[in-house]
Amino acid sequence: MTDWQEIEGGITAPKGFLATGMAAGLKPSGAPDLALIVSDTEAIAAGVFTTSQVRAACVDYCRQRLQDKASSRAILCNAGQANAATGELGLQDAIESAKLLAEALNIDSDAILLASTGVIGQRIRMDALRKAIPQLVNTLSETGGQAAAKAITTTDLVTKSIALETVIEDRPVRVGGIAKGSGMIHPNMATMLAFVTCDAAVSTALWQEMLTRAANQSFNQITVDGDTSTNDSLIALANGQSRTSAITDMNSKEAQKLQGMLTAVCQHLAKAIARDGEGATCLVEVQVSGASDDEGARRIAKTIAGSSLVKSAIFGRDPNWGRIAAAAGRAGVSFHQEDLQIKLGDFLMMENGQPLAFDRQAASNYLKQAAAGTYLKEDTVLISVCLGNGSGTGIAWGCDLSYDYVKINAEYTT
Prior knowledge:
The chain is of the alpha+beta class.
């Protein structure tokens, strides 16, 4: 039983936030490609970013901004050009983008955070951006969350959005979020792109700690293709407009409730990204228990979820438990193979490190039914792995690997 409920509104559900999205001419297709999220007041800002040594200009820009000033008023995101591996000119484009938006919003440029997604090596189309900024600002609204969610997508088939509400000090407190991601998903931080808003009052250090914890239990536990992006960014704003007392102690019940709701928002968005993996037909959830610690359990879960052999078997509706066992064994986590137990859905396939007889056709049908399920409801393939009697648990999410993944990515820039 959770202490929160899902509500409408997405990224603009929390008080004091506006959003919008538009087609600015950045994408050759003419699809929406520019998004903006704005807080009415200064908000505490936190971020988690890619650990790749090849980073987009927006990542370096945001890191520096958050180091200098852990607060923000707005997030500007362009789609179409990643502005990664673009050198000094790419960084100047990022700086100019912030200045243009600051002028239009009549705020300081250091109150703006940036994100980009698209083709690596391509700079932002600044002529189009310059023309679009005034119109973008003029269309900000409390109902603009869906437009923003659409404008940050690239190869995504669906938008990803969620909002949750709880009660703290008899006042409603809300967390909303949007994300994008479909390919190049194997985050070593957060995800392709995700933005979170919150109207709770929370201290700067605690908000960053909460976001990092949430990322480690959500975006850092998804994989589509094993590739980490140059642009991975998770940015969260908390503006205190719920008018509750400031939350400063992680051990307080208020902090625990907010942490749980923030993690739930991030997990929803993370699973949506994994389910929308390029060419995917189903979501895969790997649950690991019995490890010596949670870190080891999470590592094994993500290794299984990211195994090309496991992913291919699921696409082929082949209940090949051996591939699951092999992936668990190579994760770099110590356990006794004689304790290993593996289940696919309700089908027990291995016990005490030994294979068991099971109905292969029925197990194959289970995989077929998942592929025919509905988005994020009945389309989840569940793999359960127990390593022994340890207290460590972990979950990871991925998807199957289909022929279409190669089709989508073989000619991505041509």
